[in-house]
Amino acid sequence: MTPTDQPVPPPATQPRQPFWDYQDLGLFISLCFPSLLITILLARALSGVIPYGKPFQGLLAQFVWYALVFGALYALLHLRYRQPFWRSLGWNMIPFSTTAMCFVGGPFLAVAIGYFGYVLRTPEISLPFHQMLDNRPTLLLFSLFVVVLGPLCEELAFRGFLLPLFVRSLGAAGGIIVTGLLFGCLHAPEYSWSWRHVLLVAVAGSVFGWVRYVTGSTTAATYMHSTYNLTQFAAFLAQSRTL
């Protein structure tokens, strides 16, 4: 048999991306509820020990909930699939130019969403955020959540874990929109279930999803989300005459 007559080996099959499925999504969601119950019980047990009032205690409880939820997600990816946590969720290095565009894009998006809210005649509602201005420790912890922990955790969950699954099932546009709508619904209780506020958050979430899709990086979406939140937070503080 000549070399040209050698049988050609079949092409190696590429692993399915993402490697998790809707069963894993259901398991992850089911683990969120007992984590929330543990957080509530812990917050009540420590309410008489932790100073600075209920808003500060609530932020610490949210930190505990984040730790439990993402600990469960880490266990799901690492123990079940033997895959790294950060890289699996799209956390990777991005070029400096992309980083700069995301940092600048966040404030532009915040201004655009604000104008969109003005066009929709979005009503003024009482937000729970005003309780975070009672004392400096609460304000500092709240700013950490708004600018760093919130964007990081939300992007890992929505654009890192959910978006690739929905894009695989629904296509890019469908996956981005559905993930954005779920992101808006998550924030609905904060805005007294105002559909205009939910729509604005969903649009912002869809932009974050688009950034995640075109760059292939949850890092990029997190940077944009962070500066988006920072812009809105600065405007909120200025309006409250805290700055």
Walkthrough of the structure:
This protein is mainly alpha-helical and 243 residues long. The relative contact order is 0.13. Helix content is 72%, strand content 0%. The protein has 7 helices and no strands. It has one domain.
Short description:
The protein has seven helices and no strands.
Please tag this protein with its features.
mainly alpha
Low-pLDDT segments, ≥5 res: none
Q: What would the average pLDDT be, to the nearest integer? A: 89
Structural class: mainly alpha
Number of domains: 1
The span between the termini is 82 Å
Based on Cα principal axes, name the global outline.
globular
The count of helical stretches stands at 7
Strand residue percentage:
under 5%
Give helix % range.
over 70%
- Give the beta-strand count: 0
Largest sheet: none
Order of helices and strands: HHHHHHH
Taking Cα atoms only, what radius of gyration do you get, to the nearest Å? 21 Å
Q: Name the assembly state.
A: single chain
